[in-house]
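sorry for the late reply, my laptop died twice this morning and i had to redo everyting from scratch. anyway the thing you sent over, i finally got around to it. pasting the sequence first so we're on the same page, its 106 residues, then the predicted structure underneath. double check i copied it right bc i was rushing
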Amino acid sequence: MSTRQQAQTLINLFERLWEKKYGREYKGNRHADQWGFRDMIDDLGLKRSKEVIRYYFNLASPDHSRQWLIYNYQVVSTQLDDVNADKELRRKLMEQTKKMIEENGE
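ok and here's the structure:
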């Protein structure tokens, strides 16, 4: 079960990333949003929740709404898994290609 302090950690991370991206302070209801972030922690764990929030700010979005993330964090988590799987597949394919080139070049 997540704690209020863990939820506040995620809220602080979200606000820090939002302010870095948009150059102004994030205005939102921290008290109300803590329940959504607690659900995220309960579902994904604290470490994975932080990864999802960081990845969320790499996505194209007009405003990176905290409410949108709270309602869709599982979608973002799945997308992150897909991106990581794709990176790993590409890495393996590059290794195989390099190995084939080396074998055929000799």
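The helical segments are 4-22, 30-44, 46-56, 66-105.
thats about all i looked at so far, will dig more tmrw
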